[in-house]
Amino acid sequence: MFLANNYFWTEPEPYMHVIFCLALILFACKSLGILARRIGLPQVVGQVLAGLLIGPAFFVGIPEFNGLLGISLGSEEMDILHVFSQIGVIFILFSSGLDTNLKEMKKVGVVATIVACAGVLVPLALGFVIAMCFMPNGFSDITNSNAVFNAIFVGAILTATSVGITVETLRELGKLNSRVGTIILGAAIIDDVLGILVLSVVTSLHGSTGGANILICLTFIKVILFFVFAVGVGLIIRYIFKWLGKHYPHHRRTGIYATALCLIYSFLAEQMFGIAAITGAYMAGLMLSGIDDTEYINKKIITSGYLIFSPIFFAYIGISADFSQFHPIDLVFALCFVLIGIVGKIIGCGLAGKATKHNLRNSYIIGFGMIARGEVALAVYAAGKSLIWTN
Q: Are 278 and 97 in contact (CB under 8 A)?
């Protein structure tokens, strides 16, 4: 025992505990991902399930039980996992931007916009209705401005589709570059932006009318400026990368510069323009799509991102789920909330698909393809939970 304690095992440094947790998470993600694929499901399902089994979600009623792997994740570990997960989803969106066929995206741009608008308005309206039903006085609180704002906020959480989960699922199914897949991807990107706009508008309205109008205008201006900046600067950067590809084809510096560009676009999108970082990453990939070195850059991103960061992103979704504070009425609301979230996307996006002359099968595929919620919905929740208005 003495030898074991002093020579073979000592109390690990905090960073070593994180490394051990990462090793177990990656092992669980890959193992359950393979199992999911064997039964005909995308690997991301297994990776999210791995996170649920590692985290407290399924085991809140068992004292001192830290999930199936027996690891304890404190606030420091969760903060580090959150950073890793954000890098993972940024790489996923950058890769999907690189994969995007610009010609095909132009063809489906109008359809994707219609699908995105329907995918925002219908879940927003249904979320508002279900939230009002659970207000203390039900729909009688419709005259209470705070209750109305809170109900709209609930609906806003349901507006954004998880681009990361959707892209990875479409990629595994081999449908990412299909026409329907391109529509789903384009619509998911657009409704993320619209979802953030909805949150900005809702929070802006909680003040004086004049101030709210100014804030709403500023929000729209910032969105427009972001896309002008992303495309304007991106065209110059695209020319530089074309030059690099011509004079230094398949060189490691190209992959490094591309990764730096992805991270810079992500940072500027969120910090300067108030747009989700993943939208910046996607735009960075879009600016580099279709050049000679696009495939080479994408391979580098897939190697670095999918080896560590991307599995942690999907696992983090499960790990961060915590049902310890649920009461029976909360569970009823949660079930209704999930049901409305699913139905809202199927009805809204499916009908939009049908209205744009797609057959019934493809309309259903578009509707179901837009169901996934994840990173942006969590970001909307995190940004707005401190703004819940009380009576």
A: no
